[in-house]
Specification:
9 helices; 7 strands; 7-stranded parallel β-sheet; single chain; alpha/beta; Rossmann fold
């Protein structure tokens, strides 16, 4: 499949399990994938090498999403080679604590990466995308934004705001052929999730009795990024094994 041939796709947080799976899927669909990491250059360089070995194209971009100036400079460099027509806002962090014990810096850090990071990347890339009259913006949210989760008031707030931003932005850009959707994963197998959710808890929480895989989320992202999803916009789509 080469449905994204000729398109440039930026995936933020591509050094993690979910971001790397999405990047590999978009590359397989023909996009030139721009891999972002905050600090783990080695991880995205290894990912770029895997993509190249499979016949795809990838570039590495390391910048700090919490920096207005650093992100603006990085986006300007990215745009020198042309517009980005697929943007996956995947970068996010956890810093869990129950609300009475949550420190101000825990609150601000989580909001800054997931929500302010979305603004810092999306805003400068938007006009060049709109001028092409074709684009896909995919925001990675969370089941925590929909159902809540103890110890994650900061994370749920950040991802809930991202869901609302998704709906509002979709209305602004729909006439120009740009769709904006959010994906809300449940428990997805990754080193981070495996440390929090043991198999017995997953059996209890998830009706399908297993964690999802990064590749399953990537398949949904790949569909939303493709031409067949042109009539889907402003949606928050859950992929969570039936959790409610």
């Amino acid at each position: 499949m080469t449905s994204l041939q000729g398109k440039r796709a930026l995936v933020t947080g591509a050094s993690g399990a979910l971001g790397s799976a999405i990047a590999e899927r978009l590359a397989r669909d023909g996009a030139t994938v721009l891999l972002h990491a905050n600090g783990r250059r080695d991880a995205i360089e290894a990912l770029a090498a895997r993509i190249a070995a499979s016949g795809g194209q990838a570039e590495c971009h390391v910048f700090d999403l919490t920096s207005d100036e650093g992100t603006a400079q990085a986006c300007a460099r990215i745009l020198e080679a042309g517009p980005v027509q697929v943007l996956v806002n995947n970068a996010g962090v956890h810093d869990d604590a129950v609300m009475p014990g949550m420190r101000a810096e825990q609150w601000h850090k989580v909001i800054d990466v997931s929500l302010n990071g979305f603004f810092r990347v999306t805003q400068p890339l938007l006009l060049p995308m709109l001028r092409t009259r074709w684009g896909r913006i995919i925001n990675i949210s969370s089941v925590a934004a929909i159902t809540g989760n103890k110890g994650q008031v900061n994370y749920a707030a950040a991802k809930g705001a991202l869901n609302s931003a998704t709906k509002a932005l979709s209305l602004e850009v729909a006439p120009r052929g740009v769709t904006v959707n959010a994906i809300a994963p449940g428990i997805i197998a990754s080193p981070m999730a495996d440390a929090v959710f043991d198999p017995a808890l997953i059996q209890q929480l998830v009706p399908v009795k297993r964690a999802g895989t990064p590749e399953e989320v990537a398949a949904l992202a790949g569909f939303l990024a493709g031409p067949e999803a042109a009539y889907i916009t402003g949606q928050v789509i859950s992929i969570n094994g039936g959790m409610v």
